[in-house]
Each structure stands twice: as C-alpha cells, then as structure tokens.
Write a structure and sequence with these properties.
The protein is α/β, with parallel strands linked by helices. It has 17 helices and 8 strands. Helix 6 crosses helix 10 and helix 11 crosses helix 17.
C-alpha cells in the first residue's frame, strides 16, 4: 500500500462522526473514489463525516459528534472547531430530510462534490491535483481498525484542509442549502437507483442540479407519482413490500429476502442463491405466462421542447414507477431522427438519464419505427410474451399506415400526443389500440395538467 493510501485510511482516526462498523468506513472509501472520478480530492475522514451525516438518520441515542481523543495542541483545537461545524451541518433541514431517503452512492458522491468543491479550490497544497490519480482499496479488512499514530507531515495534510474548510464554513453550509430538495426526494423515491460503476451516471447526476428544465420535470413528477403509490393495489404478481406481503416465492428482490436465509454460512448462502433455493416474501404468485414487456418510447427531437418535454418525461417517470411497483421491468428508449439504445429499467435504473437526456437532432419517424419494428419482432420471438408499446410524442409524428399496421401485429399500441399543432391529422390513428391527445388547455394549470397525467397513468399496466 502506498504512503498516500495509508495516510487516508489512518486518517479515519480523526473522524468526528462515530462509525464503528467496517461497512461504513468502506462506504466512505467508495465515495472517495467516486469524488476522485470527478476530479476532486477531499481527505477521506472529511468525506466520511459529511457523507455519514447525509446517509444515516441520527437520534438522541446516537453517539455525539465530537472530536476524537488522543490529539493535543493546535490540532486538537482544530478538531474541536471541525466537530462544531459538523454539528451545525447535522442540524440543517436539507441534511435531516436526506437521512429519510435511500440515496445511492453516486448521489452522495455528487452532493459531496458540490458542497466541498469550494474548499478544494481554495486549498493550497503541493501537487494537490495529482492526488486524484489514485483510488482507495475496497476490501473491508483494510478498514477493520485505525489508530491515532499520524506523523507530523500527515497531520499537516489534514490540518491544512480543515483550516480552509473552517474558513469556508458559510460557503459550505450555503452549498448544502442550495441542493435541490425536490430532486433528491424524487431520486429517493426510486431508492436512489443508479450504477456506481457507470461514469455516465455520475456525470448526469452532476448536471441535474444546474439544468432548469430538470427542475420543472422533477416538480411535475412529484405531483403525479403519489397517485401511483396510492393506487397500486395489484390484481396479480408483485414482488415488493408495498401494502404488506401475501406469500412466499423462490424469486424476488433481495430487499424481500426472508430473514431465515441469513442463518446459513456464507458459502451455503451464496450457493442457495445460485441454485435459486432462497425464499422471498411476495404479494402473490407471479403468473409468468402473462408477463408483458412494457416498451416506453420518448420523443427527444427538437420539437419536444418546453412543456411537451416536461409533461412527457414526467408521465414516463411515473409510468415507470407504477410498472416497477407491479414487478415489471419496462424498457425505456429515446428517439429523434434515430433510435437510441434501449434501457431496461431495474432497481439500478438511472433516473438522471431520463431527466437530463438531450438531443439536437431533427425527426425521421419512418426510419425510427421501421427499426423499432424489427427489434419488437425479435423480442416477441425470444419467448412467450406480449409487448405493450407506449409512444410519447406530438402531432407531427407521421408514419405510413402500413408500418403502423405491422407494428400492431406485434404490439399493443398506445399513442400519447402532447400539444399537437393544428390541424391534428394522423392517418394511422384508428389503428392504435388507444390514444390520448393532450391539448394546451390541459396544461394551463397544475390541477388540469395533473389530472391529464393521472388519467393516462390509470390506463397503464
């Protein structure tokens, strides 16, 4: 292990937010590596403390935030002031609310980056940019303990950063308060989904807090998603904890794993998982023969700017949430003059991808839906399943009638046309199984817009 890695791990001895568990210290190492991927370096103990404040709910019984023992002189005074600052951050309404949501590692890493970037920028340290060139190991045994045997050079490294951080306290706390609570809440509704190994995910997240259009989509989504949560009492299968459990199955989400499975030794546990011998709570038996593939197509062409984009993406996000609650794995796909790669929505679905996807291309609907037809045919041939195709677009989505007829042969077609220009004339409209037309008057107020969206969502699933 190099000296710089050893310094970071041993530096956990100066943490002011208690964490006796290896898993929590290992988690902070993951944040450290993610923050490095964004070109920022912050000493591990600071990331550990601020990250734990966001991710762990504290109560009166929690260990107090206080400076660790074993240090004296000027460094002890510095740690005392740092603990005071951490206590002030812990009292923030933003921090308290974040503790109630399940935010992903990527989200916390982005929050750390946005709030601590001013400190890094002002921190004067020799070759500080080169510090982002290494990552910490992610083996739990490396974080099983730490001592306070930091050398003078190591103490100066941590001291120099803490001094700048304390001088920048107001800026740091202001940056925390500037984090968009609605965006974080929406991400929390999806359990903060995202793949920590996907660099594009974290870049998308970083942009969420600076894009005005995203804020509009988030606000609209939060208006309609509660209706999905209230109304999702399902007739058939649901492998989720909503409204309690009604059965036991051999397949399901790890969140619903029966506690009795944890009595097995580690080797037996993983073997049972591989052999599909584990038991999961579920609402009722899934009827695999009725499995549907829900294909959500989102128009991202230049014509879908403004209110069209806000309505389409808000509805698509709520639609995805509803289908996920039903145990489905919908497929999301953007299109403009070309058809973009399909994204299967799982528990690791990247919500930022849907919110921030941008395109500057024009339209070529015939080409897009011809390619889609081939993809849907291959999907149907892969197994016994029916395809539900939802298309969110506008009134200029002109397609040859014969192409729509062929699409109808392989999928159930539901077209949603938002703010179509006048006159609205699509020759193929009668071939769709279902269609909805969202006129300007439906988007004039929050209540009418919400009602229009909920009416659409009631027909999904």
């Amino acid at each position: 292990m190099t000296d710089v890695i050893q310094r970071e791990i041993e530096g956990l001895a100066i943490c002011v937010v208690p964490s006796s568990e290896e898993a929590l210290r290992l988690r902070s190492a993951g944040w450290f590596n993610l923050v490095h991927s964004l070109g920022l370096h912050v000493p591990l103990p600071i990331l550990h403390d601020i990250g734990q404040l966001w991710s762990l709910r504290r109560s009166q019984d929690s260990e107090p935030i206080s400076p660790p023992a074993g240090f004296g002189g000027a460094f002890a005074k510095l740690l005392f002031e740092y603990a005071r600052m951490a206590n002030a951050i812990a009292e923030s309404d933003v921090v308290r609310r974040c503790q109630t949501w399940r935010l992903s590692e990527n989200i916390i890493a982005v929050m750390l980056t946005k709030t601590l970037a001013p400190v890094f920028n002002e921190w004067v340290y020799e070759n500080k940019t080169s510090l982002t060139q290494f990552n910490l190991p992610l083996e739990s045994q490396r974080y099983s303990g730490h001592s306070a045997s930091l050398g003078g050079a190591d103490l100066e490294y941590f001291s120099s950063f803490l001094r700048v951080m304390l001088r920048s306290e107001l800026r740091v706390r202001h940056a925390i308060e500037q984090l968009d609570i609605d965006t974080l809440r929406l991400l929390g509704l999806f359990k903060g989904g995202g793949d920590a190994q996907n660099p594009l995910e974290i870049v998308d997240l970083l942009g969420l807090f600076t894009m005005p259009m995203v804020n509009d989509i988030v606000n609209f989504s939060l208006q309609i998603i509660p209706s999905v949560l209230e109304s999702s009492k399902l007739k058939d299968a649901q492998i989720s904890s909503m409204d309690g459990f009604e059965g036991i199955e051999r397949n399901g989400h790890l969140d619903n794993l029966m506690l009795s499975e944890f009595v097995y030794d580690e080797d037996v546990f993983f073997q049972r998982y591989l052999d599909n011998e584990m038991f999961f709570y579920s609402r009722s038996r899934i009827r695999e023969e009725e499995r549907k593939v829900h294909y959500v197509m989102l128009d991202a062409s230049a014509s879908m700017r403004g209110r069209r984009t806000v309505f389409a993406r808000g509805v698509a996000l709520a639609m995805i949430k509803k289908l996920m609650l039903q145990g489905e794995r919908p497929i999301l796909r953007f299109f403009d003059s070309q058809l973009y790669a399909p994204v299967e929505v799982t528990k690791d679905f990247s919500v930022p991808y849907l919110l921030s996807f941008r395109s500057e291309r024009g339209r070529n609907y015939k080409n897009v839906f011809t390619q889609l037809l081939g993809d849907l045919r291959r999907l149907r041939e892969s197994g016994p399943q029916s395809v539900m195709l939802y298309v969110l677009t506008h009134g200029q989505c002109h397609l040859p009638v014969e192409l729509v007829a062929r699409l109808r042969e392989v999928a159930y077609l539901f077209g949603i046309y938002i703010l179509p220009s006048e006159p609205f004339e699509l020759e193929y409209l009668s071939l769709l199984h279902k269609s909805r037309l969202i006129q300007a008057d439906a988007l004039n107020s929050q209540s009418t817009r919400r009602k229009a969206a909920i009416d659409i969502l009631s027909e999904i699933g």
